[in-house]
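Hello Y.,

Per our agreement to keep a running log of every chain we model this quarter, I'm adding this entry. I've kept the format consistent with earlier entries: sequence first, then predicted structure.
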Amino acid sequence: MAAATSSQKITVRKFQVHSNFERFAYLFMRMSGVGLLILAVGHMLIQHVLNSSANLTIEFVAAQWNSWGWKVYDILLLWLAIPHGINGLRNILEDYIHNPTTVKLINRLLALFVVATVIWATIGMALFDASKFQ
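Predicted structure for the entry above:
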């Protein structure tokens, strides 16, 4: 029994892979969740266990933010927490809103809110002058 490869027709299909926002949003939620677990638990331990809650004043924060290490830590926490929370809100809203135009509008408003908040808060944290509070 000889293989008749010359008479077999091979079908070649071309397709373009489109970016899948929901897949990336899903992966972001999982990865940012792991990062937030580490950063947020570390933040709680440092701010509320190792230091007394009575010491949490603007002077205490100014002393911490005098170091770029603490600023970077808190900025990373911000960069993960705000988009993570808003993405969760987006998922919840999409469960209840069924009009595609409304969903698109809300998604754009939420994205604008995330970008504006992250940029505004990052600038505020980065330019915070600790010397004014000590």
